[in-house]
Amino acid sequence: MNDLPKQPAGPDPANEFASDSSPIDPRDFRNALGTYATGVTIITAAAPDGKPYGLTCNSFASVSLNPPLVLWSLVVYSSSLTIFQNASHFTVNVLGASQQALASKFAKSSEDKFTGVDWTPGLGAAPVLAESVANFQCRSVNRYYGGDHVIFLGAVEAYTYNATEPLLFARGAFGRFLADDERKK
What we know:
Radius of gyration: 18 Å
Protein name: Nitrilotriacetate monooxygenase
Keywords: Monooxygenase, Oxidoreductase
Pfam families: Flavin_Reduct
CATH superfamily: Electron Transport, Fmn-binding Protein, Chain A
Domain Flavin reductase like: 33-176
Structural class: mainly beta
GO molecular function: FMN binding; monooxygenase activity; riboflavin reductase (NADPH) activity
């Protein structure tokens, strides 16, 4: 008996870049990935002129505890890609359950997403958003190209967190975490 995953016939998926020859349907693949619940973050950085930039992201993950490293990814055709590629620092702002409107605001293209948003400049002038569940201020360490995304690796130089309930995202919708003891109430 062989429990190894079946590999699709055709070119090596690791060497494909936006190929139309993949046997995997992109929409169905996205639906499958959506079954994995993630936290919701807003990644921020500052342009050379100091203007703040930010976007909603759920592709955030820890990489290493020692040294403290995290990663996130951005699609290659994002209008903000150049800002993040050239920034010395970025901040990962983990959103709370009450910040769904903020997540939606930063998920859309807009000239000034920071209007009406409470924030302070962090390391490298990357905005640290008020009332986030956690924030990780990172020095940009490296970038890697993976398919239609750029993966940003950051060395965490400062962080804060609190006990606020995090905002979650799964199956294309926002939600919240219910611990087993909360469900029994």
